Amino acid sequence: MSVVSAFLVPGSPLPYVQRDNPPWGEIADAMETAGKALAASEPDLIAIYSTQWIAVLDQLWQTRAVLQGLHVDENWHEYGDLPFDMKIDVEFAELALKKTAEAGIKAKGVDYDHFPVDTGAIVASNFLNPDGNIPLAITSNNVYHDWQMTESLGRVAADSASELGRKLAVIGVGGLSGSIYRHVINISEDKIADSAEDEWNRKILSMMEQGDTEALAKACPDYAGAARVDMGFKHFAFILGAIGGNFNGATVHAYGPLYGSGGAVVEFDLV
After folding, report:
1. CA–CA separation, 174 and 197 (whole Å)
2. Which of 53, 101, 133, 175 might form a disulfide with 140, Cβ 3.0–4.6 angstroms?
3. What is the tens place of the pLDDT at every residue in 228-243?
């Protein structure tokens, strides 16, 4: 297989910009642990699917060779800025565009100076590729694409890497349960806002740890609805597509609250 490692990580900036807060610091530490595991897998390329890069017309792939700038998160701007410096594997992106179209999905490359790179992609890149020495492929979350179509995009990423002889690390960036506090809280006492959603999160993470892909396939649609999961959990669908739908198990490096919503850092044990 072209995929040598795969990770599910939250896209919230809170662990990055306020890691001295204990609930968020645990996730920050886990992100760095995941980054070490990613580096140990020695990929030539990292593919990032972030729920926060919203598209509505086409499936977008970054095709600009270098993305640099300073990002201000639209929700958590009071906690600080997010610098980024990313190298894009343009050859891979061009092939992925071609293969996306061949899969029956309209696709478009994005090559704009000062393009507003989303928070999730920046957080994942800064934590898991801190030196920026591994080239990236970044693709969007089209809100009209369902689970199956998103899985097919994961397969496009893996197939493109295979054709180019690249070893690929895959990162699905997004949250778990979606209920968030809408009032000011003491952030040191942050917790999952809804106990039923917390139970769902733990159930799904346990299935991942056990590698129970059959149970996960049955449970994910109900989970997405009952726990108001970030974008229907499509970031996990992208991972599944890239790894061929199977894994032996997973390590949950951290699970915790992000202002009431759920986030986890998960490393998959690939077949």
Report:
1. 16
2. 53
3. 999 999 999 999 999 9
Q: Angle of helix 195-210 relative to helix 213-226, nearest 10 degrees? A: 160
In angstroms, rounded to a whole number, what is the distance separating the alpha carbons of residues 23 and 229? 20
**49-69: b or e for each residue (b if 16 or more CB lie within 10 Å)?**
bbbbbebeebbbbbbbeebeb
Using N-to-C axis directions, what is the helix angle for 147-164 and 90-102, rounded to 10°? 130
Nearest-angstrom CA–CA distance, 108 and 88: 15
Instruction: Write down the residue that tokens 């493109």 correspond to.
Output: 160
CA distance 45 to 133: 10
Q: Which amino acid is at 163?
A: E
Q: What are phi and psi of 168, to 5 degrees?
A: -115, 130
Cα–Cα distance, 170 to 136 (Å, whole number):
10
Smallest CA-to-CA distance from 51 within 11, 17, 24, 14 is with 11
